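[job 4471] stage=fold_predict status=RUNNING
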Amino acid sequence: MKRGAMISFSGIDSSGKTTYITLLKNYFEKRRIKYKVVWSRGGYTSFFEAAKKLVRFFGGKKLPKSGHSEQRDEMFKKKSISKTWYILALLDLIRLYAFTFRIYKLLGFTVICDRYIWDTYIDFCFQFSEDQIEKSMLWKILTRIHRKPDVSLFLFVSPEESLRRSIEKREPFSEPLEKRTSRIELYFKLNDNEKWNIAICTESREISSVWQEIKETIDNAIF
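[job 4471] inference complete, writing structure tokens
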């Protein structure tokens, strides 16, 4: 087996990432492979979350609570705030994607990423322009030095199915259909630019069938 491999799962909400990551964890445990699952999203990484808690603690009621809100949207209309947020988010992503993930490799851990760099890119596209992101020096650094996955998977369903599953699971901060549609369009655009090794539609297939395809892809790459 390839020591300290890395596997990333990307895709719109409710496309099956958690389901197949759980199956992969069970598979690795049976084979006694040590692993770490890392959920990441720009602006919500561990160090940045800790910093936000400190700011909220000292800022009190002046700052919006975590999660989507009108107060938060209004605050982000201030360029100084949105720019500072963006810079700090990217710095912590560089810390995680370029350094922490390589440390895990040295320690022999296989890293399973629940979302990765291109999911964050799509998140950023809803706050900043694509041109603004791609011209950012920190973004350029991140795309050059982030650790490249051995297997990168893009799972997708239709926006309508994504919303249906989200409602069924009673997810908080559920996105409206229009935003899900825009999001999946960005995913397909990146997929056309070959940002992932493999794209799999999980909407109308049995879980066992999709899992078999994922397992075979991973086995071929790291064993």
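[job 4471] summary: The first strand starts at residue 6 and ends at 11.
[job 4471] exit 0
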